[in-house]
Each structure stands twice: as structure tokens, then as C-alpha cells.
Design goal:
By secondary structure, the protein is mostly helical. The chain has helices spanning 2-16, 31-35, 43-48, 52-55, 60-67, 82-89, 99-117, 128-140, 144-149, 151-160; strands spanning 92-94, 97-98. The radius of gyration is 18 Å and the shape is globular.
């Protein structure tokens, strides 16, 4: 399948990237900057469209978007405009590391592990779905299971793709920690 091959190759290229990453404090972005749309009104929604990394084999639209990606870290067109991509890559993950650096280090580590394990098979590729998706989800605080069940997000994805226009997505609904009553008749009154 073409998308699987391309996702493996692009992820491998990301692991081999040697370009310097900015740690300039004035360019470093916080996670709340991404969430609060100070960079772009639809940025947080578009970040969640990385849903595609986990669903490219099940959804033709996900596969089509991923086929257009040329950035080895997947943080670029068609998902993000250049200034959005730069902001995401420069997001501070901890005091000393940007998201871009985290992706590079993680993929390099995984590629090295694969090289040791897969000598016999000759398959040294890093897979976007298995290697990049978890890094992005953890760093950006995205719950892939909740996202795949969020009806509002899925409706927007199905109808608007990456172009929300005047529509708005408020993010995943907050998780309720209220106890669930298991007995019938107990719980909220109607």
C-alpha cells in the first residue's frame, strides 16, 4: 500500500534529520498557546487531525492527506501553514526540549532499535502510525481513544477536513470523574 510505504519513508527521514532546532526563548511556544489559538484560530483542531496517523489504512481521506505530506516529521502542509508548523515544532515540551527535538530523538532511538532487531528481515523503516503518533499524542496531551469517539470532531473531520471555515471546535470534552452508579435507578434525576 502506497501510504504505508510513504509513512515509513517519511518517518525514517525525520529520524535522520540533522538540521538544528531553535531553542530561542522568543520563538518557543507553550502548549497553552497552541490550545488557545493565539497562533491560528483553527490550529488546535488541525493538530487533532493527526488522527490520520492512526487511521490512514481505514479512511481514504486520512490516507489522501498523509500522501501530501512532505515534511519528515509530518508537521507541515497540508495540515499546517509554514508559520503554524514552525510554532508547533518550537513548542516547549520541557525546559530544555522542543517538540521537534523530541520527535527527532525518539525516532532516532526507535530506528536504532529497529536496526538491531530487524537485521534478518532487512526492514529498518520507522512507521508513522506506531512511532510518530504516540510521540505527538503524549507531548500534546491528545487522547487517541477519546478522539476517535468524539462525535463533534469526527463530524467536522468528515465534513470540513482541514478547512473549518467559520465553524469552531472547542476540543475534546473534559473527562468526568463523577462516580458512575451501576444500579438502575441510581444517579441523576430527570
Amino acid at each position: 500500500m502506497a501510504s504505508t510505504s510513504n509513512t515509513h519513508v517519511a518517518a525514517e527521514e525525520a529520524a535522520e534529520t540533522t538540521e538544528p532546532h531553535s531553542t530561542n526563548a522568543e520563538k518557543t511556544i507553550s502548549l497553552s498557546d497552541l490550545q488557545n489559538s493565539t497562533i491560528s484560530p483553527t490550529l488546535w483542531y488541525k493538530i487533532h487531525v493527526f488522527f490520520d496517523l492512526r487511521h490512514y489504512s481505514e479512511r481514504a481521506d486520512s490516507e489522501a492527506r498523509l500522501e501530501q505530506v512532505s515534511d519528515p516529521s509530518y508537521i507541515g502542509l497540508p495540515y499546517f501553514e509554514p508559520e503554524e508548523a514552525e510554532a508547533i515544532k518550537n513548542t516547549a515540551i520541557d525546559e530544555n526540549k522542543t517538540l521537534s527535538r523530541l520527535i527527532e530523538e525518539t525516532l532516532e532511538e526507535r530506528l536504532n532499535r529497529r536496526m538491531k532487531k530487524r537485521v534478518s528481515s532487512g526492514d529498518f523503516r520507522v512507521c508513522a502510525a506506531h512511532d510518530i503518533a504516540p510521540v505527538l499524542e503524549k507531548a500534546l496531551g491528545i487522547d487517541p481513544k477519546r478522539l476517535s469517539k468524539d462525535e463533534c470532531f469526527l463530524d467536522l473531520l468528515n465534513t470540513a477536513s482541514l478547512k473549518l471555515g467559520d465553524r469552531k471546535w472547542d476540543g475534546l470534552q473534559k473527562k468526568s470523574f463523577a462516580p458512575k452508579d451501576k444500579k438502575k435507578g441510581k444517579g441523576k434525576h430527570r
